[in-house]
Amino acid sequence: YDNARTRLNALPADGFVKIRGYMRTMIDSNNRQIKEGAIAAEELKQSSVLMLEIGVVIAFLVAIMLGVMITRMITRPLAVAVASAQRIAGGDLTQPIVSDRGD
């Protein structure tokens, strides 16, 4: 142990200063890269959340439009059938029952 200490103390101090400087440079570089990575991750998170919100809004609007279309596809033929049935119930037996639907 004493021999190692003697050899260590015999080494020039400027070598240790250089090594410490290199290590400080590496540590600073690592810290900078960590900060840049955190910033990039936060930006990615924000853009992902925005895209998800836009997707939800678009899906909601498409669902509403499809609901309205399907409702109209069902109610319009029913309205025609009800109108014909009301005319027949009112005594107009000349009312033809027209059905151009294939379902």
TrEMBL record:
CDD domains: HAMP. The chain crosses the membrane at residues 49-70. Pfam families: HAMP. The keyword Transport does not apply. PROSITE patterns: HAMP. Keywords: Membrane, Transmembrane, Transmembrane helix. Coiled coil: none annotated. The keyword Amino-acid biosynthesis does not apply. One of its GO terms (cellular component) is membrane. One of its GO terms (biological process) is signal transduction. InterPro entries: HAMP_dom (IPR003660). Residues 72-103 form the HAMP domain. This is Methyl-accepting chemotaxis protein. It comes from Pseudomonas syringae pv. actinidiae ICMP 19096. The lineage of its organism: Bacteria, Pseudomonadati, Pseudomonadota, Gammaproteobacteria, Pseudomonadales.
